[in-house]
């Protein structure tokens, strides 16, 4: 009975969602057809669909996906490999924090995109510079989220653990790590979003591959449906990669989802 | 299995002063308290009188500014599994299941493992009716279940002293009285030296061997009442003449302190109003 009810609400939610999406596409098509000022200049969904069908069988389109994904994955993974331990260290040791945090606070407010020109200059290849800015986008987010997560740990957990006989290293592995895991995952999800922003912009500036460049090429070549295809592809790619992180995250934090 | 491993905990002229930039605040002053072996001592006092600070000092979470704490005549500093705390609200680890939470202490100290540990835990979980919830996370338990799991998590370590800081606070009245019965059953079965902080007089009298009334800040012991009502106790004893006599004596003592607390509050309030008025 309960499951049926749940399914019903779920399908209703789905219907409502689909309704707004369908309405959006209809209005878009109509405004293109009747040349509504400003928005009418955007290619109609039917044109975009035709372009998408063409691109779908074009190897270059998939190559763009591949290169962007490669940059994202590399930058993101390096950011986690360096950022997670650093965040934990800063959260755990006050001395390290007092030493390193000021440096981070100076670097952090500089938007990752502002790093593009300088990184193009000092990295030997455009590829490296793009991976570097992608890395930056995810790095600070993950570090700060972990530090905040550790600071927010209820002191009673630390006290309970130490009363029960946990030593400093036990407290690190058994309390600080699991207690900060939810904020690590939030940091990763947000970081992934930033990573896509950064890589798209970097690709438009610094290279001639990737989904960002695909979109830019549409603009340069006056192939407007391609711009929209590029935008949609980037949106989809961002959605999928955040989804993967959430999925992995749920596996590591079963206590947050179980009911 | 019994847990009659109680110890003698003595606090000798404990003083705790918090100093901040503008001045210092004396929370405890020369507080002397003895928790006798295998007795249940209940501490009551006006709100904000420093009961939680007392628990934090006894547990070793905070350093006293003066005085010493002895367990079985040996001085203790810092936290340890010989003095376990059952916290206000709950401090179960959210990322561990009920069973894993209870098993944490023995496991981390490497004292008990395998089937013996499993049996010890399951026996205790059965007493508090949580055996079917062993693999649930704390967020999947009700408030009352969480408190029971927390009691068991402390008890499984056979602490010499259990320090319970208003452990049933925030529960509804019915759950609270059920929790009290669970706790009484556990205590009467296993004994051990217990310190129980509460603000409910009936709860205090139903539980206590000794009832300690604490003064308004700075806290010290105002009076210790001996509650020699027979065990096992049920709610019926609350109509006995001995019970009622104790209750009125305790009420009077508490009332005196509450009035002082209130007056101190009133003085502060008057100061505040004065200061506010002078701001124009």
Describe the structure.
The complex is a heterodimer of chains A (259) and B (280). Chain A is mostly helical and 259 residues long. Chain A has one domain: MetI-like fold (Orthogonal Bundle). Helix content of chain A is 84%, strand content 0%. Chain A has eleven helices and no strands. In chain A, helix 3 runs antiparallel to helix 8 and helix 7 runs antiparallel to helix 8. The mean pLDDT of chain A is 88. Chain B has 280 residues and is an alpha/beta fold. Chain B has a domain of 187 residues: P-loop containing nucleotide triphosphate hydrolases (Rossmann fold). In chain B, 40% of the residues lie in helices and 22% in strands. Chain B has a six-stranded mixed sheet, with helices on both faces. Chain B has a four-stranded antiparallel sheet with strand order 2-1-4-5, with helices on one face. In chain B, strand 9 and strand 10 form a beta hairpin. In chain B, helix 2 packs across helix 3, helix 2 packs parallel to helix 4 and helix 4 runs parallel beside helix 5. The radius of gyration of chain B is 20 Å and the shape is globular. Chain B starts with 8 loop residues before the first strand and ends with a helix. The mean pLDDT of chain B is 87. Classes of the chains: A mainly alpha (259), B alpha/beta (280).
State the end-to-end CA separation of chain B: 69 Å
Q: How many structural domains of chain A?
A: 1
Question: If strands are numbered along the chain, what order do they take across the biggest sheet of chain B?
Answer: 6-7-8-3-9-10
Mean pLDDT across the residues of chain A is 88
Based on secondary structure, the structural category of chain B is alpha/beta
Give the total of beta strands of chain A.
Answer: 0
Percent strand of chain A equals under 5%
Mind summarizing the main beta sheet of chain B?
A: 6 strands, mixed
End-to-end separation of chain A in angstroms reads 18 Å
CATH uppermost class of the domain at 9-75 and 159-278 in chain B: Alpha Beta
Shape of chain A: globular
CATH architecture heading of the domain at 9-75 and 159-278 in chain B: 3-Layer(aba) Sandwich
CATH superfamily annotation of the domain at 9-75 and 159-278 in chain B: P-loop containing nucleotide triphosphate hydrolases
What's the number of extended β-strand segments of chain B?
A: 10
Q: Radius of gyration of chain B from the CA trace? A: 20 Å
SSE class of chain A:
mainly alpha
């Amino acid at each position: 009975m309960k499951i049926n009810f749940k399914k019903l609400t779920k399908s209703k939610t789905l219907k409502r969602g689909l309704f707004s999406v369908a309405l959006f596409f209809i209005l878009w098509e109509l405004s293109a057809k009747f040349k509504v000022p400003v928005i009418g200049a955007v290619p109609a969904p039917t044109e975009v669909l035709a372009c998408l069908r063409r691109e779908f069988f074009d190897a270059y389109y998939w190559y763009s996906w591949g290169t962007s994904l490669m940059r994202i994955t590399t930058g993101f993974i390096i950011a986690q490999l360096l950022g997670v331990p650093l965040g934990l260290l800063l959260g755990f040791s006050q001395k390290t924090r007092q030493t390193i945090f000021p440096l981070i606070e100076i670097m952090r407010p500089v938007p990752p995109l502002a790093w593009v020109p300088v990184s193009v200059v000092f990295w030997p290849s455009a590829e490296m510079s793009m991976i570097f800015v992608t890395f930056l986008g995810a790095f600070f987010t993950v570090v700060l989220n972990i530090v905040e997560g550790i600071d927010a740990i209820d002191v009673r957990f630390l006290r309970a653990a130490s009363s029960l006989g946990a030593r400093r290293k036990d407290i690190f592995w058994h309390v600080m790590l699991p207690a900060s895991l939810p904020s690590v995952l939030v940091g990763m999800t947000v970081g992934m979003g930033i990573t896509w922003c950064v890589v798209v912009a970097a690709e438009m500036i610094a290279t001639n591959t990737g989904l960002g460049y695909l979109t830019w090429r549409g603009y340069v070549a006056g192939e407007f449906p391609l711009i929209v295809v590029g935008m949609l592809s980037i949106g989809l790619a961002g959605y999928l990669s955040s989804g993967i992180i959430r999925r992995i995250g749920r596996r590591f934090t079963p206590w947050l989802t179980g009911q | 299995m019994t847990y009659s491993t109680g110890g003698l905990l003595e606090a000798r002229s404990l003083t705790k002063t918090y100093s901040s930039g503008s001045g210092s605040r004396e929370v405890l002053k020369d507080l002397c308290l003895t928790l006798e072996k295998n007795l249940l001592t209940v501490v009551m006092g006006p709100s904000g009188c420093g009961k939680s600070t007392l628990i934090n000092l006894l547990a070793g979470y905070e350093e006293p500014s003066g005085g010493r704490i002895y367990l079985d005549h040996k001085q203790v500093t810092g936290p340890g599994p010989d003095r376990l705390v059952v916290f206000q609200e709950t401090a179960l680890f959210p990322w561990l299941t009920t069973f894993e939470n209870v098993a944490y202490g023995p496991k981390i100290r490497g004292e008990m493992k395998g089937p013996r540990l499993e049996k010890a835990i399951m026996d205790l979980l059965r007493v508090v009716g949580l055996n079917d919830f062993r693999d649930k996370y704390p967020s999947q338990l009700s408030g009352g279940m969480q408190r029971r799991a927390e009691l068991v998590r402390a008890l499984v370590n056979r602490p010499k002293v259990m320090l319970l800081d208003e452990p049933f606070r925030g529960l509804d009245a019915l759950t609270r009285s059920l929790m009290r019965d669970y706790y009484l059953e556990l205590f009467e079965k296993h004994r051990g030296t217990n310190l129980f902080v509460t603000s409910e007089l009936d709860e205090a009298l139903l539980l206590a061997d000794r009832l300690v009334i604490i003064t308004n800040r700075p806290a010290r012991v105002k009076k210790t009442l001996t509650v020699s009502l027979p065990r096992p106790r049920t709610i019926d004893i609350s109509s006995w003449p001995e019970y009622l006599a104790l209750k009125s004596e305790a009420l009077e003592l508490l009332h005196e302190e509450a009035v002082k607390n209130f007056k101190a509050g009133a003085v502060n309030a008057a100061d505040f109003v004065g200061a506010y008025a002078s701001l124009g």
